[in-house]
Amino acid sequence: MNIQGANNTGQRSTLDYSIVGCFTLILLLFILLLDAYEYVAVPGASHARNQLHQGLEGLTGMDILSKKEQVQLEVEVEEAITVVHEKKEEVEEIVKKVEEMEHELKPEIAPVTVEEQVEEKEKEEAIVEKTVEHELGIDKWCASCTWQNTGFTCEKRVSWLMERYHIDDVEAKEATLNQGCHTRRNLRAGQ
After folding, report:
1. pLDDT score for 24
2. Which residue, 136, 109, 135, 105, is CA-closest to 123?
3. How far is Cα 144 from Cα 157, in angstroms, rounded to an integer?
4. How far apart are CA 18 and CA 9, in angstroms?
5. pTM summary value
């Protein structure tokens, strides 16, 4: 089909060239998008992409992650969740045993009313939380240090992980400390 203007001399109109140009541009952008998500490899595009990433990283102070880095991050977050979960279970078991021994030795201090049971459960949860943080070194964590020599703090990284992966603060702190917090080296070296 040939879209022609007022002259019927067989020449292509400006509209024809515009349509072909737009289609070509859209196709090029689609291929570059696939290259950016690493589905296809376009020769020469990787250099342009790297330059663009470096420019964006310089402006924003944030790293742009490749698919491989994103998968690695997800694995590290899952590992942090597992570590925190295992530590919580371990501490809860210890707290439970201590309370059972305490109630055997002094049955009069065992909670009787529902309010006392709720209060004791809240105390248990607070003890477990503090103990897990201590065991993982999170209780000495400094939120204001710079994460991986980037332009943002570990606290911002924790907030981002909590929002992105829907995890709690202890799990996000553990993941942040394992991934690139400079404080972690000092914490683990001192243990």
Report:
1. 93
2. 109
3. 11
4. 19
5. 0.55
